[in-house]
Predict the structure.
Amino acid sequence: MALPLIAERLRAEPPEEQNYDPDLEKIEVELLLEGVFRKYGFDFRAYAYSSLRRRLWKRIVESGLRTVTSLQEQVLHDPSMMEQLLLDLSINVTAMYRDPHFYVAFREKVIPMLRTYPFIRIWHAGCSTGEEVYSMAILLHEEGLYDRARIYATDINEVVLQRAKAGIFPLDRMKEYTDNYIKAGGKKAFSEYYTAKYDNAIFKPELTKNVVFSQHNLVTDRSFSEFNVILCRNVLIYFDKKLQSRVQSLFYESLAMFGVLVLGSKESLKFSEYEPCYEQIQPPEKIYRKIR
Amino acid sequence: MNGIVVIGTSWGGLSALSQVIPELTRDFPLPIGIVQHRSKDSELLVGLLQDLTPLCIRDAEDKEPLCPGTIYIAPPDYHMLVEEDHISLTVDSPVRFSRPSIDVLFRSASDTFGASTIGIVLTGANEDGAAGLAQIVARGGRAIVQDPTDAESPIMPQSAIRAVPGARVLPLKKISAELMRLATVVDKPRARKAG
C-alpha cells in the first residue's frame, strides 16, 4: 500500500522541504514567463498563478529537474523543451455536450431569439479540439438554423485547430457523448452524425460547412467582427483577474446589442466590471444577454 | 487572509461533514475549502449542508473571493485551487481518477498559505489526500485525520496517517473543537507573506 504513495510523492509537483519559499518561487516563475515571452513570443504572464504553477511543476518533475530556474535554463536554450512546455501549458480538455443542461437552456432561451435573425454569427473562442463546435453545429442543424449560421471557431494553438478541422474523435468517448447528447435534448440518434472507423468516430463534413477555423490569441489579438453569440467556456478560468477583464472587454466590443455571451458553468460575470452590461437569461446557466 | 482550512473526503463524506460543520461557530476566522468526491450530477450537497450551519456555504465559482467563515465546496468535474484572496477552478485532467482532487486542493492551499494551512482528511474509500496532507505538514501546516475505526470507510484516513504519522487522529465528534482551537492559533498575521 505504501508503494503507490511513494510513487505519487516522487511524482509530486513542488519541493516539500521545510524551507520552501513561495516568494522566491514567484520570482522564479515571473522570470521564466518573461523569458518565454521575450524569446518565443508566447505570453503566459497573466495566467492564473496556482494552476500555472501546478503545470510548471509537472514539467519540472517529469524532466528530472529541481527548480523553476533550472527549467528556465532548459527552455531558453532548447526549443524542444519550449515545445514541450507549450503543450503542458495549453488547455485542451473538452468534451461534446459538456454540461448538457446548458444546451437545454440554449435551445429553450437562445434559439427562439436567433430565429428572428436573417443571419447568425457565432464566435467560439478557445475552441480547442472542437468538440463543443460540433455540438453546437449539430444543435443548430436540428433547429433548422444551420444554413443561415456561420461559426468562427478560434484557438491560440494551430495544432488543436487542425484536429478540430479534421473532426475525428476517439470512438471510446462516444458512449459518454451520446449520453450527454440525449440529456442535452438531442433529437436524433447521435450515431447519425459520425461514421465509426477503427478506433475513431469521423464526423460528417457537412457539419463544418459553415465553420471557419482560425488562429486567434485572446491575450493579444483584437476583435475581428460583430457576433450574435460568443461562446467561451472554461477558458477564462486559466487567466488571472486582470487578463480576464481585458478579454471581457474584447467580448463586449465584439457582441451586437442583445447578443449572447456564454461562459463555463462555474465562471461568472459577477466578479467582473462588465456585469451591469448584461442580464443573465436563465440562472444558474451562464448565458448572458448584452443589454447596454 | 491569514490562513485556510481544507477538508477532503469521499465515501461517507456527507454524513461526516454533517457532524463536523454544525459545530463550527459563526465567528470562525478562516475560509474552509472542501473536496468531496461525488458524481457529476449531484448538486444537492450545498443545500443539504447549508441547512445545518450559520456559516455561508458556497458552490465555488472561479475567481470567487475568499472570506473568513465561508465554506467553499469544489464543484463536480472541476479541480479547486486557491490563490491568496480567491478561488481558482480548472478543468485539468483528473488526478488519480479524481476531479476534483483532494491532493490538488491541499497542495495549492499549502503553496499559497504555507504553515497557516490546516488539512483534514475524513472518511473515504481511496488514497486521495494523503500526499497533499504530507505536503501541508512538511511546510509547517497542521493535519487532522478522522480516526479510521470511527470512519464509515477507513481507507482514506489510514493512508493519510501512513503519510503523516504525526497527524492528530480524532473521532468525528472531537474534530470541530480541535479545528476551532487550531484556527485561532493560525489566525495571526503571518510572519512571512506567502504567495
Summary: Residues 191-195 of chain B have pLDDT under 50 and may be disordered. The interface with chain A takes residues 60-65, 75, 78-79, 81-83, 86, 88-93, 96, 103-104, 107-108, 111-112, 114, 127, 130-131, 134-135, 138-140, 159, 162-163, 192-195 of chain B (CB under 8 Å). The longest strand of chain B covers residues 4-9.
